C-alpha cells in the first residue's frame, strides 16, 4: 500500500443539480449521446434531507459519466457569472470532422454554439444546456496530448495566457468542403481567416 506518493486517479464523473431533469436528459442525449443507466428517487425526511430524483448517464462503457440530481424548488442562477461555480465542462472528439459534423447535426436540431474558437492547442465550440451550464465540445489540433501541452506551456510563457481566436463554424465548413485538411483549417483559423462577422458576446461564459 502506497502511503507516501500522490496517486493520480482519473476523473470519472460529475454531478449537476437541476430542477429540469427531463429537459436536461433530452439535451444531453441529443448533444452527447448520453443514455440513462439508472433513474432513482428518494423521499425527503429529517435524516436524508430533501426529496430528490437522480439519473445516472453515460456515453461510453463506464456505468456513469454524469449524474443529474433534481431537487424541487431550485432554480438556475441568472447571475451565476458573479458567483463561484463550475465555469464549463468539456468533451473531446477524435477528429475535426467529428466536431464539425456534430455542429451540423446539432444545428439541424436548433442547437447552436454561443461561441467557437481556435485556442491553439484545440478548436472548441461552446454550447449552453437548458440550465445555462457551458458545455465545450473540442478537438485536439495536434492529435496528441504531449504536443498540445507543450503548445499551451509555450503560449502561456510568452504571452501570459494561451491565445484564442474566434471562428465562424460555417466558414470552416465551407473551407473543409473545398478540400482543406484539418491542419490547414487550424492554421487558417488561428490566422484569423474564419473570424465571425458578428463578435461573440462572451460575458455569460466568463
Question: Which key terms come to mind for this protein?
Answer:
24% strand; single chain; 206 residues; 2,3-Dihydroxybiphenyl 1,2-Dioxygenase, domain 1; globular; 2 domains; alpha+beta; Signal recognition particle alu RNA binding heterodimer, srp9/1; four-stranded mixed beta sheet; 9 strands
Can you lay out the helices and strands and say which pair or pack?
Blueprint lengths: L13 E5 L2 H12 L2 E8 L9 E7 L7 E5 L18 E5 L2 H13 L6 E4 L3 E7 L5 E7 L4 H15 L5 E2 L2 H9 L4 H9 L16
Parallel strand pairs: 1-4, 5-8
Antiparallel strand pairs: 2-3, 3-4, 6-7, 6-9, 7-8
Helix content: 25-40%
By CATH, the architecture of the largest domain is named 2-Layer Sandwich
Give the radius of gyration. 19 Å
Strand order of the largest sheet: 5-8-7-6-9
Tell me what the structure shows:
28% of the residues lie in helices and 24% in strands. By secondary structure, it is an alpha+beta fold. Strands 5-8-7-6-9 form a five-stranded mixed sheet. The longest helix has 15 residues, at 145-159. The termini are far apart. The model has no long low-confidence stretch (mean pLDDT 92).
Brief sketch in words of this structure:
The chain has 206 residues and is an alpha+beta fold. The protein is built from five helices and nine strands. It folds into two domains: 57 residues, 2,3-Dihydroxybiphenyl 1,2-Dioxygenase, domain 1, CATH 3.10.180; 118 residues, Signal recognition particle alu RNA binding heterodimer, srp9/1, CATH 3.30.720.
Amino acid at each position: 500500500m502506497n502511503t507516501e506518493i500522490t496517486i493520480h486517479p482519473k476523473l470519472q464523473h460529475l454531478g449537476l443539480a437541476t430542477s429540469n431533469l427531463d429537459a436536461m436528459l433530452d439535451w444531453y442525449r441529443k448533444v452527447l449521446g448520453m443514455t440513462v443507466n439508472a433513474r432513482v428517487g428518494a423521499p425527503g425526511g429529517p435524516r436524508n434531507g430533501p426529496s430528490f430524483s437522480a439519473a445516472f448517464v453515460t456515453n461510453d462503457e463506464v456505468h456513469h459519466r454524469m449524474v443529474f440530481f433534481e431537487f424541487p424548488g431550485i432554480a438556475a442562477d441568472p447571475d451565476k457569472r458573479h458567483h463561484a461555480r463550475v465555469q464549463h465542462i468539456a468533451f473531446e472528439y477524435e477528429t475535426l470532422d467529428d466536431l464539425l459534423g456534430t455542429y451540423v447535426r446539432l444545428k439541424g436540431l436548433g442547437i447552436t454554439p454561443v461561441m467557437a474558437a481556435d485556442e491553439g492547442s484545440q478548436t472548441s465550440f461552446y454550447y449552453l444546456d437548458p440550465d445555462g451550464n457551458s458545455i465545450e465540445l473540442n478537438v485536439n489540433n495536434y492529435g496528441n496530448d504531449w504536443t498540445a501541452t507543450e503548445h499551451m506551456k509555450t503560449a502561456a510563457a510568452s504571452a501570459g495566457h494561451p491565445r484564442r481566436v474566434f471562428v465562424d463554424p460555417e466558414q470552416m465548413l465551407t473551407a473543409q468542403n473545398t478540400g482543406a485538411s484539418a491542419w490547414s483549417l487550424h492554421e487558417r483559423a488561428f490566422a484569423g481567416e474564419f473570424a465571425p462577422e458578428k463578435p461573440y458576446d462572451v460575458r455569460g461564459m466568463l
